[in-house]
Amino acid sequence: MEDRPKKEHRTRQAGPKSDKGRRKNAEKNNPKAFAPLSGRRAEKQARRNMDKDQSRLHVPQVDRTPLEPPPVIVAVVGPPGTGKSTLIKSLVKRYTKHNLSEIRGPITVVSGKKRRLTFIECPNDINSMMDVGKVADLILLLVDASYGFEMETFEFLNILQTHGFPKIIGVLTHLDRFKNGAALTATKKRLKQRFWTEIYQGAKLFYLSGVINGRYPNQEVMNLSRFISVMKFRPLVWRNTHPYMVADRVEDLTDRDLLQADPLCDRTVTFYGFLRGTPLKSTTKIHMPGLGDYYPDNLTALDDPCPLPESQRKHLSEKAKLIHAPMSDIGGIIYDKDAVYIDVPGSFSRPGQRKSIEGSEDGEGTEEAGEEQQVPPMSLNPYLDHAKCLLRRV
Ligand SMILES: Nc1nc2c(ncn2[C@@H]2O[C@H](COP(=O)(O)OP(=O)(O)OP(=O)(O)O)[C@@H](O)[C@H]2O)c(=O)[nH]1
User: Fold this and answer.
1) Domain-embedded: residue 267
2) SS3 at position 233
3) Is residue 51 part of a domain?
4) Using CA atoms, how far apart are residues 318 and 336, in angstroms rounded to an integer?
5) Is residue 364 pLDDT above 70, yes or no?
6) Between 20 and 30 A from 47 (CA), which of 8, 28, 352, 375?
7) Does one domain contain both 90 and 229?
């Protein structure tokens, strides 16, 4: 078998590898490398390339906002004492007629037939600014006009650059401190120019002149609130492609005995909030800023605690206006995993009993009171005081 001569391949008679085909291709190939053979074809090619470039630049952004969109996150940012709390109180009063005495945690209000707003007051530290920059749809940037721009404001604008720039509205406060009209006009003009340089030419700036009864003047607040209610938001790329949530309520479900035995034990914590962006799967690892990555034990969809008014209603009547602020001092309905609570402000325990539980000054607290006091409380305020207390560590 080995001696048998190998049979030669037959030469190809047709196709690109045949002699005929090769000769034909050689004729077609341009010896001057990629120089066009015909002017018309070259022009067509150039036009096609330009079209392709343009369509790449204008890829339509998918708007993933559901029919009933989650509340728009409005962050109120500014150096201390610029009037952040005063502005949130004024806006909440305008939208809901509620008088807030203290701002704690996010406050969600129904601002129109199709829009809800969640107000967050941003504390004046860099970590809070970064967290706010990641989630806010609209920033109300407060500036004390009698003082001018401060370093924090510019730092905050720098932080925003890295997270996709949300919409920004400037708000000048403390304008009543100017007694001289000319000085006021000059300051307004100067600050406006500076604001436009930092944001963009023509960025919206509101002026608030003075505080009446702990709130800004009604007309000025109304102008601002109307502007916010009709604003359009373009989805930012990262937020349009990831699920994210701002927790507006935190519950520590850890067993008290366990906690007493080891205050640093792993804790079980439930977070409540509106989900934004894309749907969230239970197998997704969740990143919590400042804490790390965790797998959730369980995800549950609850009833909307602050639903939009029914679509058939023509006007948003006073009664339909709603507020949802579980961390603040307003009474209301709290939706739990398996129950609905009506939170009634005030204490229902008997005064004597209450006193003994709290433990009087001369140390007459009951045993129960002693136990209560030893357990480290889970702070609700800016959610995550206890870094090691959350969910199952990865
Ligand atoms: N005269 C005047 N006082 C104002 C104005 N805006 C706010 N204030 C006062 O400034 C003080 C501070 O206001 P807040 O609303 O607590 O300011 P804040 O930015 O929340 O302050 P921090 O919580 O410390 O960051 C309050 O006493 C307000 O009454 C204003 O436009 N004019």
Assistant:
1) yes
2) coil
3) no
4) 26
5) no
6) 28
7) yes
User: Do 83 and 115 lie in a common domain?
Assistant: yes
Q: Containing domain of residue 180, as a range?
A: 72-238
Residue 138 φ then ψ, to 5°? -140, 135
In this predicted structure, the answer to whether residue 272 has a pLDDT above a threshold of 50 is yes
- In this structure, are 276 and 231 located in the same domain? no
Q: Report the distance separating Cα 392 and Cα 355, nearest Å.
A: 38
Per-range mean pLDDT, top range of 29-38, 71-80, 291-300, 374-383? 71-80
CATH number of domain containing 147: 3.40.50.300
Q: If pLDDT is split at 50, 70 and 90, which confidence band does 290 have? A: confident
| Per-residue pLDDT at 365 exceeds 70 | no
Separation between Cα atoms, residue 65 and residue 116, nearest integer Å: 13
How far apart, in whole angstroms, are the C-alpha atoms of residue 134 and residue 162?
Answer: 9
Final residue before a domain boundary, out of 194, 209, 238: 238
Domain count, the chain: 3
Q: 107 and 227 share a domain?
A: yes
Distance of CA 217 from the midpoint of ligand 1 (Å): 14
Helix (H) or strand (E) holding 248: strand 243-252
Structure confidence by residue, pLDDT tens digits, 190-217: 999 999 998 888 889 999 988 888 889 9
The answer on 222 and 168 residing in a single domain is yes
Residue among 273, 296, 270, 300 at smallest CA distance from 283: 296
> 226 CA to middle of ligand 1, Å?
22
Helix (H) or strand (E) holding 230: helix 218-230
85 CA to middle of ligand 1, Å? 7
Q: Which atom of ligand 1 approaches the CA of 121 most closely?
A: 20
8 A C-beta contact, residue 326 and residue 248? yes
Q: Note whether 206 and 224 are within 8 A (CB).
A: yes
Domain for residue 76, yes or no? yes
Q: β-strand 72-77 against 138-144: which pairing, if any?
A: parallel
Q: Which residue of 76, 77, 85 sits with most ligand 1 atoms within 8 Å of its CB, as the best mutation to test the pocket?
A: 85
Write down the pTM of the prediction: 0.71
**Orientation of helix 151-161 relative to helix 126-135, angle to 10°:** 40
pLDDT of residue 43: 92
Model ipTM value: 0.95
Residues near 65 by beta carbon (within 8 Å), at least 6 away in sequence: 235
Q: What is the pLDDT of residue 46?
A: 92
Is 63 part of a structural domain of the chain?
A: no
